[in-house]
Amino acid sequence: MCEFTLPSIQESQLIRVGIAQGAIVSGPDRIGTTGLGSCVGVVLYHARKNIAGLVHIMLPQSPPNFSGNVCKYADLALDWLLDEFSKQGLRPSSLKAKAAGGAQMFSGSANSDILRVGPRNAEAVENYLRDAGVELVSTDFGGNTGRTIEFDLQTELLQIRTAIKGTYTI
Amino acid sequence: MSVFYNLDDRQQDILREVGNVGAGHAATALSVLLQESVQMSVTAARLCPFDEIADIAGGPEAPVVGIFLQIGGQMNGSMFLLLPMQSAEHLLHQLNLTGHEGLLFEELQLSALAEVGNILSGSYVTAISELASLQITLSVPSIAVDMAGAILDIGLAFSGDIADQAILINTQIWQGQMNIDGHFFLLPHPQSMVKLFSALGWDNDV
């Protein structure tokens, strides 16, 4: 009965996620975030159900009894994202993940614990996903370059754009 | 914590005054370095959601030279000087250090730009320190050339543990007929803002 409806090829839209924010899209829309330095962008997706979610996290671990913007912290942001998928009836074990970011933009003698927040973010994401049973398909962590990322559900590729090292996909 | 989310007129004025005095000192220091007169003006002194900070420097993906310093002592936080590529090139030209490819600067050029950042930030911080009678120290400058958003991450992460907004004091620099268009971002730790406001004579409810 749907023979004469509009063709399914629609203009795909890019949903941009801001710093310390998260969002969910369904294909053919793409989802991305700009200017990841020490922050990490994590994409969780279910290709068959055509759903992808992204969080742009800033810090590895939430303080105790935190009540505020959950997407700032790796642990709470991923809790939130998994919860959104579970509302669609999708378990963590059925999801795949790709992630990028966690660079150390500055080196030097300033407080090294703070400068190392990038690598600590990456580690927190890896640990969380492993414990939750989500398959982390590929990552592009570390180094000292900023990244802009964009995920396309149709190809399941995460495009990474950098200011210095060009553009590539993982 | 409501004070961090809504600055009243008086608090905005205090922030702007801090910005202006700092900019005045920094302009003098830069004039000496470049042997030309330099003018600075404070274009913004306000609370800023994290997402908007990079927009002021041309958007999160705009390539910039970023000089990052940590503030310590009686006030904690971080400070950035962001120079758009063209401004960095102009500064290097003034210092007789021209010639680079794309975003790849020579070691000596980076070191010179970091030093400019150091002088400017130092003047800025000294002004704040004198105005507020707080003892404030600065770390050695670190420098990076990359997307503005990526460069700012570290400062946001530092103050972001508590707040979703940062305090922004944005200053622009003009030198002769060229606009050097540098942006200062002061991201005090939210708790240090209380200290700063009360040191500047603002005691109510902070």
Which runs of chain B of at least 5 residues are low in confidence (pLDDT < 50)? none
Gross morphology of chain A is globular
Major sheet of chain B: 5 strands, antiparallel
Beta-strand percentage range of chain B: 25-35%
What string, H for helix and E for strand, traces the elements of chain A in order?
EEEEEHEHHEEEE
CATH structural fold name of chain B: Chemotaxis protein chec
Output the CATH class name of chain B.
Answer: Alpha Beta
Through-space gap between termini of chain A:
40 Å
Unreliable spans of chain A are 1-8
**Annotation field: number of helices of chain A:** 3
Q: Compute the gyration radius of chain B: what is it?
A: 16 Å
Helix content of chain A: 10-25%
- Which fold name is given in CATH as the topology of chain A? 60s Ribosomal Protein L30, Chain: A
Instruction: Describe the sheet with the most strands of chain A.
Output: 5 strands, mixed
What is the global morphology of chain B? Answer: globular
Number of strand segments of chain B: 8
Mean pLDDT metric of chain A:
88
Instruction: Please state roughly what percent of the residues of chain A sit in beta strands, choosing from under 5%, 5-15%, 15-25%, 25-35%, 35-45% or over 45%.
Output: 25-35%
What's the total number of strands of chain A? 10
End-to-end Cα distance of chain B, whole Å, is 8 Å
Order of helices and strands of chain B: HHEHEEHHEEHEEEH
Condensed summary:
Chain A is α+β, with helices and mostly antiparallel strands and 170 residues long.
Structure description:
Chain A: Belongs to the CheD family. Chain A: Probably deamidates glutamine residues to glutamate on methyl-accepting chemotaxis receptors (MCPs), playing an important role in chemotaxis. Chain A: This is Probable chemoreceptor glutamine deamidase CheD. Chain A: Its EC number is 3.5.1.44. The complex is a heterodimer of chains A (170) and B (206). Chain A is of the alpha+beta class. Chain A contains 3 helices and 10 strands. Chain A has helices at 74-87, 112-115, 117-132; strands spanning 14-16, 22-26, 30-36, 40-46, 51-57, 96-101, 135-141, 147-152, 157-162, 167-169. Chain A has a 5-stranded mixed β-sheet with strand order 1-3-8-9-10, with no helix packed on it. In chain A, strand 9 (157-162) and strand 10 (167-169) form a beta hairpin. Chain A is globular, with a radius of gyration of 17 Å. The relative contact order of chain A is 0.19. Mean pLDDT of chain A is 88; it is low at 1-8. Chain B has a single domain (2-199), classed as Chemotaxis protein chec, CATH 3.40.1550.10. Chain B starts with a helix and ends in a 7-residue tail after the last helix. Classes of the chains: A alpha+beta (170), B alpha+beta (206).
